[in-house]
Model the fold of this input.
Amino acid sequence: KQEVTQIPAALSVPEGENLVLNCSFTDSAIYNLQWFRQDPGKGLTSLLLIQSSQREQTSGRLNASLDKSSGRSTLYIAASQPGDSATYLCAVNSGNTPLVFGKGTRLSVIA
Amino acid sequence: ETGVTQSPTHLIKTRGQQVTLRCSSQSGHNTVSWYQQALGQGPQFIFQYYREEENGRGNFPPRFSGLQFPNYSSELNVNALELDDSALYLCASTSDSGNTIYFGEGSWLTVV
Done:
């Protein structure tokens, strides 16, 4: 059974700092890994999707990497801003299986 | 804007009652899935529909049921509500060809 763990559970950083969020999964036979953002009380917004054949994806100040063999992914946020404050969720799936989510990392960027 | 809309946004029900949550997804998105997200937890998969047939189910009891309609709308029904059913219920849709999954804003259900 696939399990996804995210560390840390919460993180508070000053504005402008670069930061890394971590995600690990127990079964390396994944098809996709996705990072989502969730604002308080809101739905999920897809940030980056990495297919199993890829090593990383970039979008603006965000960079996500994937190491399937070790069951790890990182989300790197450069030059953090207060608007980045949200919960970041990592999720994996295998083929047509549903997404399995971690519990998320709650990020606060202090101005 | 994900193109997935859910209603209602918030509702309060009493233990033992029944609730229906609704979702409207993008035209052409034949797969719709529902997730339950308790406070402080990640979303948990409830079930998935493809072209009006259930084709996957998570670890949820039969009192959680669903329907998908030809017009790309769907419903999540929960009978005999329990206090632990209090959560954010998320609907998501994908097209046949795409990897990207689009989530709605969710419906907050409080059971008292």
Q: What stands out?
A: DSSP finds no helices and eleven strands in chain B. Residues 6 and 23 of chain B are 4 Å apart (CA to CA).
